[in-house]
């Protein structure tokens, strides 16, 4: 059996495990059951597997290693997370945990993020073992918990407490990248680009606190914590951080211009408009042109006629590589002296170069299955487990190969209602991943 023959069934089966990550360890369930099932699929093909719970009962992870031809080369980590974000069944066309195959799509929570890749990984791993295929170097397959809540009960814990699981690993592939973007050329034909993730913005969640004098709501009271905080939050939320063209985003936009024949002026202060023209993908790329700070939570007060002594807000900040110090200075200037800030979550940015043997292997695998296409680097505005692996010195790429229908709004499917993946894309992905891992 080839990977393409079983990948659809595997992805459907994975979606039927409800591995909803609520963000609260007490109510998050399903990862262990799913992980043990993955281990069973691998053992059936002849693997020895390692099952680990990361930081709390039920946070299941599975590892399997396939020895390669050259033990002196660093190992390649191939990773996928088993947890998914919540889904409200009433909003969906099909049940989000059905894994139903309808209209040539596999439907369900995780179909794109990222049980698609997990299914491909299992299919390819089983194929290699059954056919006694020896990859050029060791492959470490990792199926992990808690990505959707930042990885404290997943890769964050594993990297801290079980670095032995990553022994000898020098590079890694996982989400979010390897998918196609079809763009019209000036001559009427179409260019198909495959976006390889080589960079991620940093994720920093900030708590703001204003402290002032409590008092009666009927008095003249100029020193009001709610007013002070609200004004600062308003200033920060409306602020536009400066345009900073990183190497990764610059390389992406140059490649787009070259392939489509539509010039993009990288020096233009209005680069946002050019990026918006890329269609839905412009939402991701647009968010990598500058730092962002979006207020997301507010809390103050306990009674309508009592002025509280404190008011609080939480702001979701996403910071470009190399911008941390400048970002903090800018934020402090906007906030002013009356509001305290503290970082409640800090995951650093990440950026690697778009070169080397592994990038060449991705390129040739894609060209074998989709001749005439082109790979380009891109930066993700969000974060993945790559941030944790990077702490071990591992060079990370987002490479989950999928050839997508040009009209599909791929970006909207992540955490979206009616998340689904085309059957053809899964089969394509399994073929590319097989080719890639045989020649990595
Ligand atoms: Zn994901």
Automatic annotation (TrEMBL):
Gene3D superfamilies per the UniProt record, alphabetical: 1.10.150.900, 3.30.70.360, Zn peptidases
NCBIfam families hit by this protein: PRK07906.1
Cofactor names: Zn(2+)
Family: Belongs to the peptidase M20A family.
Record's protein name: Peptidase M20 dimerisation domain-containing protein
SUPFAM superfamilies: Bacterial exopeptidase dimerisation domain, Zn-dependent exopeptidases
CDD domains, alphabetized: M20_yscS_like
Residues annotated as domain Peptidase M20 dimerisation: 198-331
Keywords: Hydrolase, Metal-binding, Zinc
Coiled-coil region(s): none
Pfam family, one: Peptidase_M20
Molecular functions per Gene Ontology: hydrolase activity; metal ion binding
């Amino acid at each position: 059996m080839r990977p393409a023959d079983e990948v659809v069934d595997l992805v459907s089966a994975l979606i039927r495990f409800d591995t909803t990550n609520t963000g609260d360890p007490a109510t998050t369930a399903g990862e262990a059951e799913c992980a043990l099932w993955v281990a069973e699929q691998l053992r059936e093909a002849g693997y020895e597997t390692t099952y680990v719970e990361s930081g709390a009962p039920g946070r299941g992870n599975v590892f399997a290693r396939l020895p390669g031809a050259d033990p002196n080369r660093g190992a390649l980590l191939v990773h996928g997370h088993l947890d998914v974000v919540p889904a409200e069944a009433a909003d969906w066309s099909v049940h989000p945990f059905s894994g139903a195959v309808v209209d040539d799509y596999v439907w369900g929570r995780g179909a794109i993020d990222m049980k698609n890749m997990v299914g491909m990984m299992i299919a390819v791993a089983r194929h290699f073992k059954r056919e006694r295929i020896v990859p050029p170097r060791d492959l470490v397959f990792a199926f992990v918990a808690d990505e959707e809540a930042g990885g404290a009960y997943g890769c964050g814990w594993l990297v801290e407490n079980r670095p032995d699981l990553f022994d000898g690993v020098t590079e890694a592939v996982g989400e979010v990248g390897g998918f196609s973007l079809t763009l019209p050329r000036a001559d009427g034909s179409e260019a198909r680009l495959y976006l390889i993730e080589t960079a991620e913005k940093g994720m920093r969640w900030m708590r703001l606190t204003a402290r002032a004098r409590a008092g009666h709501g009927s008095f003249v009271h100029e020193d009001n914590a709610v007013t002070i905080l609200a004004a600062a939050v308003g200033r920060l939320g409306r602020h536009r951080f400066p345009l900073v063209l990183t190497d990764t985003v610059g390389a992406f936009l140059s490649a787009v211009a070259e392939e489509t024949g539509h010039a993009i002026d990288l020096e233009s202060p209005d680069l946002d408009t050019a990026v918006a023209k890329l269609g839905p993908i412009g939402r991701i790329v647009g968010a990598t042109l500058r730092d962002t700070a979006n207020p997301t939570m507010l809390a103050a007060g306990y009674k309508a006629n009592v002025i509280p002594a404190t008011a609080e807000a939480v702001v979701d900040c996403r910071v470009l590589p190399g911008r941390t110090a400048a970002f903090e200075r800018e934020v402090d200037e906007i906030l002013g002296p009356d509001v305290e800030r503290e970082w409640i979550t800090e995951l650093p940015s990440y950026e690697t170069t778009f070169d080397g043997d592994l990038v060449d292997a991705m390129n040739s695998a894609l060209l074998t299955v989709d001749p005439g296409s082109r790979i380009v680097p891109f930066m993700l505005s969000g974060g993945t487990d790559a941030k944790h692996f990077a702490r071990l010195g591992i060079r990370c790429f987002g490479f989950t190969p999928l050839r997508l229908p040009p009209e599909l709004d791929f970006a909207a499917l992540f955490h979206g209602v009616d998340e689904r993946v085309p059957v053809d894309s899964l089969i394509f992905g399994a073929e590319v991943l097989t080719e890639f891992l045989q020649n990595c």
